[in-house]
UniProtKB/TrEMBL annotation:
This is Class I SAM-dependent methyltransferase. Residues 64-161 form the Methyltransferase domain. SUPFAM superfamilies: S-adenosyl-L-methionine-dependent methyltransferases. It holds the Pfam family Methyltransf_25. GO terms for biological process: methylation. PANTHER family: 2-METHOXY-6-POLYPRENYL-1,4-BENZOQUINOL METHYLASE, MITOCHONDRIAL, METHYLTRANSFERASE. It comes from Streptomyces tendae. It comes from the Bacteria.
Length: 304
């Protein structure tokens, strides 16, 4: 996703929001791609849970569209979950779609895997036929009018087709409340700063429409029938794998760049120690680093 949140400290939400240009024009997606792939691969157990749940509601879809697909890790999981489906990865970043195509070929899905480049959701007009299942992960909150975006996505569903959106849940936690350096509660304070930054991002979008984040109500207002809501947990306890440690380190490093100046001096100093390769209390050496996050998926059906 170039982006993370439920606006998360990882970059996932951004990661997924590639179809949109509001603040992503200066992002080097080719450079970001390895980080996005690593995150999606780390989160694969969570995505597999969500797909198992979706497969009970959507049986044998003909076309699955991953809206804001990024480098295609999740798109390929859909191809694996639904072996009879054609899968289209749709995104605004061509370098990421190149990686998605390469991944599909490598995994043996190339003959039923397509890509669609362009700003979303407008680019979906180029689909050959309506989707039976459409997935949008942490991309809608980057669009100015979320309700209109839901209606646009629903318009590309076949009658009876399902829209599944991943939005919200619980933000990722990486560390205990008291980590032995600095003031306890660092991650909670970082979170509060992130919430303010996210609200400003929404408000600064051109023609932004304020909306209560009641996704079930928004889906209904968009002309769809809300059919389910479920949250899925990724629980990687300490001590974490090297891949998880790298992800946590990269996430907090990017966060330090993005919002570090909004933290007080003590918290900045603590964050800098955590990111210092030579510090015994740093993330690279700590044994108490973990990853715990919940993502929520809402489903809705286009009326027949």
């Amino acid at each position: 996703m170039a982006h993370d949140h439920h606006h998360d400290t990882h970059d996932h939400a951004h990661q997924q929001g590639h179809g949109h240009t509001h603040d992503h024009a200066d992002i080097d997606w080719a450079e970001m791609a390895p980080h996005l792939e690593a995150q999606a691969e780390l989160y694969t157990p969570l995505y597999r849970q969500a797909m198992t749940w979706l497969a009970r509601e959507v049986t044998e879809p003909g076309l699955v569209v991953d809206v804001g697909s990024g480098p295609g890790v999740v798109s390929c999981l859909f191809a694996e979950t639904f072996p009879g489906a054609r899968v289209v990865a749709a995104d605004g970043a061509a370098p990421l779609l190149e990686r998605a195509r390469a991944r599909a070929e490598r995994l043996g899905f190339g003959d039923r895997f397509g890509t669609l480049a362009g700003d979303l959701p407008g680019a979906l007009s180029d689909l050959d036929y309506p989707a039976d299942l459409m997935w949008a992960s942490q991309s809608l909150h980057h669009l100015p009018d979320q309700r209109a975006a839901l209606a646009a996505l629903g318009g590309h569903l076949a009658p009876g087709g399902t829209l599944a959106i991943l939005e919200g849940g619980l933000p990722a936690r990486f560390l205990p409340r008291d980590i032995g350096i600095g003031r306890p509660g660092l991650q909670a304070r970082i979170r509060a700063v992130e919430e303010d930054a996210f609200a400003e991002m929404r408000a600064d979008l051109p023609e932004s429409v304020a909306e209560a984040e009641d996704w079930a109500a928004m889906l209904t207002a968009a002309g769809l029938k809300h059919t389910g809501t479920r949250s899925f947990l990724l629980d990687l306890p300490a001590p974490v794998s090297d891949a998880a440690r790298d992800y946590v380190t990269t996430s907090l490093s990017r966060l330090r760049e993005r919002i570090g100046e909004r933290l007080d001096a003590e918290d900045r100093a603590t964050l800098d120690r955590l990111l210092d390769l030579a510090d015994e209390a740093g993330l690279h050496r700590r044994q108490d680093v973990f990853l715990l996050v919940a993502h929520t998926v809402y489903t809705a059906v286009r009326p027949v």
